[in-house]
Amino acid sequence: MNTANATNATHITHASFLTVPVSDQDAALRFYRDVLGFEVTADRAMPQGRWLQVAPAGAQTVFTLSGPGMGGFVPGSAQGIMLITTDVDADRAKLVAAGVEVSGPDELPWGRMAGFRDPDGNGWMLLTEKEGF
User: Fold this and answer.
1) pLDDT band at 69 (very low <50, low <70, confident <90, very high)
2) Which of 4, 62, 104, 122 is deepest in the core (most CB within 10 A)?
C-alpha cells in the first residue's frame, strides 16, 4: 500500500443507507418486499414522516424509501443502483413474472447485467459478476 495514501485515508468502513425517493411508501414497500424479496429493517414514525428501510437479507447497506416530507427528494431520481446477484437470469424471470419490465441481461466483460425500474422510475441494475473479474 502506498504510505502517502494510507496517511490520507479516512476511517470510513461502509455505507449505512442509500436514499431511494418514492411517491408512495406503502406501494414502494409492496414492490421491494413482495417483488424483490427485501426485508424491512426499519419502519417507524419520525417528526418529518415515516422512516422506512429495506434491504436484501444479510445486507450491510440498506435502502431508505424516502417519501414526501423526508428531505425534498424527487421520486424516480435514484439511478444506476447496482445489486449483485448469483443468478441474473433467474431474478430477471421472477421480475418479468411479477410484471416488471426488465432490459437484458447483456453479456459484458465484467458479467451478465440486466436493468429495471421501480414503480417510481428509480433505476436498478442486477449483475452476476464474472469469476475473477
Assistant:
1) confident
2) 122
